[in-house]
Amino acid sequence: MALDTIETPFGRRDDAVGGAGTYAGLAASILAPVRLVGVVGDDFPRAAMDDLASRGVDLAGVETIPGGKSFRWGGVYRFDMNTRDTLFTELNVFADFNPQIPADWRETPFVFLANIQPQLQLSVLDQVAGALFVVADTMNFWIEGEREALDALLARIDLLVINDAELRQLSGEHNLALGARKVLAMGPRFLVVKKGEYGAALVWEGGHFTLPALPLPDVVDPTGAGDSFAGGLIGMLAWLDDTGEDALRAALAAGTATASLCVQDFGVEALKRLTTAEVCDRYEALRAMTLFPPCPLIES
Amino acid sequence: MALDTIETPFGRRDDAVGGAGTYAGLAASILAPVRLVGVVGDDFPRAAMDDLASRGVDLAGVETIPGGKSFRWGGVYRFDMNTRDTLFTELNVFADFNPQIPADWRETPFVFLANIQPQLQLSVLDQVAGALFVVADTMNFWIEGEREALDALLARIDLLVINDAELRQLSGEHNLALGARKVLAMGPRFLVVKKGEYGAALVWEGGHFTLPALPLPDVVDPTGAGDSFAGGLIGMLAWLDDTGEDALRAALAAGTATASLCVQDFGVEALKRLTTAEVCDRYEALRAMTLFPPCPLIES
Prior knowledge:
By secondary structure, the first copy, chain A, is an alpha/beta fold. Helices cover 38% and strands 25% of the residues of chain A. The longest helix of chain A has 18 residues, at 245-262. The interface between A and B is large, with 49 and 49 residues.
């Protein structure tokens, strides 16, 4: 949970409410009851907590440090929106974060471990031993500097969500198909590879599924795209209460739909007013973009 | 029609039979009767002509220049197979090529104008006034140097096939969705954008369709991928005798399937033994990779 200062070609926001947990929690909340774990300072806006609570997000796992300052990040997106420069990162209360999961959350069935030190992700996992399906995110920083803990994590999760550059880094393979096989051999049963404007792919032992991104003429702020994608994905799995191949395909489409809505406004604005009807419309737009008839030559 | 000297990390071929017409003609020949227009010297192997004829390709439009040398191209593919260096280009008999279409080919319904000077593509179009659907390819060289003729061509064709870099160059837009709209405004009713390992997209006024590439662990020689794609595409349109949206979606899948088979052997080797069953298998593999259930939230 963070306060972000964001500048894009379309405007600027100072100390906007953000953070992976906030984005993913809001995104998932329209599909399933959400339990949020995080840490904030007492500068974190009360209104933002109320927004989360009003979406049914249980905040019993959010620790508020009296006198502490919330994590802050500042960045600028260039004109093509594909690259961003980080201007500052202040860990603040995040520096000493040691996630404590409420005892009665131990059996939480669907768990999303947002991007954080893999040691902390492992600590959370220890505290939700009753989880049925665990999705984890990570980043280049941990792939490079915390490989041992990350390897321990990969052996214990069901699905890893990373982008194509991270996949190349983690696997040491340029070819994404070969790299994906290597990552599956590290532990997770499923891998989701995010490819930016080219969409996302789901890979598992027996095959794979690819999904394009929705072409959006009006991307305003890409912040939170990956976390709202993960939130929509795990939200759909929880909604379906199913982790079979078809459920995962639907979950990837729900995540893509959710992320496409998120980036059309600043920060969490679009997610605060998100509806299942909106997600469903985008989901069906994806189907219309990808459907084609069975091979006409089968009968010939 | 050309003789190609190709070097890839997997081997080398000298004076291998190739050229856009040969690749596209062989690819389409399993789906529809093909009429081929081109020029060769008398060094072009008789066996290659026989291979084409045995696939039902009508060679009445192929001119053989006595004492002439066929067009020759030589190139090296680097290890990642995505970039190639041209070592030499000898136009030879191609330098004075002036396509003459047999008079009784005037009503040919489906026409593919492979990449060549747009003036010559226009001349071919004048000679097939009865065409129902015209597909054209082009390249960066003509976009830069022959814009006037290319614009005249774009106003007269139904579908343009280009890659993403060419789309950016032709439209002056970095964003592919915006660029595609601009190109449609130049004339063609449909645009196919080839995005290499990321697949291809079909764009028209009312919407668009995207298709991933098949992940191939064993790409041996990418030469002819674009032309076998175009051949499979127009072959499917002719087979269906339909140019509606669904037919075009099927055609894009057939083109992708055909190209994936082409690149798994050197030159035209895979295309010489191509079957509809092989194309259909790959086509269905693409469907399995892209299908996902209707939005589960519709009922909620």
